[in-house]
Amino acid sequence: MSGVSIGWGKVILLGEHAVVYGYPALAAALDRGVTMQAVPTPAGGPLRLDVPVWDLAVTAGALDDHHPIGRALGAIADHLGLGRPALSLVGESQIPVGAGLGSSAAMAVAVTRALLVWAKRKEDPAVIAEAAGASEGIVHGRASGVDVALALAGGIGVFRKASGLRKLALSTPLRILVAATTEPRNTADMIQRVTDATNGKKEDPRLAELGSLTDTGTTALLGGDLAGLGAAMNRAHAVLAGLGVSTPKLDILCDAARTAGAHGAKLTGAGGGGAIIAIAPREAEGAILAAWKERGVVGFQTTIR
Asked: What is the reported pTM?
């Protein structure tokens, strides 16, 4: 549909939390995300954002306003130099909010793109990344930037804070199983939990191991060794659990996936609830999704190209 802008959701296969400290993360965009359309309001009024499926309706605010999404919307408009135009940004989402699947970054990228379309300005990836990054900083605090990079570019790649996203070309599309739990979570709280556990030191051996697992898993992926990628994912989940960002439910769902035949399963994103992912032989995917459903969580399969 003309005038509709998109930001892609994402999963982190390896490297979450460590990426905040400069280590690499292997991450991929989902085949779904958030779409946004700018609708002029001739009667005037404030710049507003409505995403009915999330029960979200806010107006653009200043940095000291109460609602974080309102502040984030205002920050995007300010970065673009647009002020507060009489617009309603109407969004739809194929990903749940607050589940570790990059919903806030997908929203920020879609909002930025929609505002640029309305302003008849050329889409500049650097401008979009900066504006969406300002939004993420308000919503999550110390954000790594990986969510915005994937929401903007799509695909799969290795992300570092210092150098951004290095996209990978896969010889065979990667199939990933994803399941979002309904456990309440807060990304900023999980980031703080890791900061407390590591005393904020990049040299913490657990962060270093997560970075090393990213390298190992990326090599395995590029070599078509899904069992090797899965082994790296399993170990990464154990390390993240040791840092305090897993939950009993996430552990149970990961164990269920492995028992049903997954090469590997782990939490994805900040943890503390949210979502899990699994890599599996195609013939085991149905059993894994069924095992998750038996435990009250509905998953889906996404293909990364």
From this structure: 0.84
